[in-house]
Fold this sequence. Notes:
Helix content: 55-70%
Radius of gyration: 32 Å
Low-confidence stretches: none
Number of strands: 0
Structural class: mainly alpha
Order of helices and strands: HH
Amino acid sequence: MIPWLILTAVLSGSTCWCLGHRTARIRVIFIGATAQQDQAAIAADETARFWRLVDSLDHPDDPRSSAA
Length: 68
């Protein structure tokens, strides 16, 4: 008798699980930026890092240079 109860419980549980997931509504909620916005932010960050690096270099022909 116990095996039949276990079998019945497993089968009814799996049937309810399948029906529940088959009828579930899937909602896609976008969080964050789009791919184009991500690429623009990455490009802006790389450009800013480049100019910070260039500004930190010593330019011998530049009168504003730190070399005296």
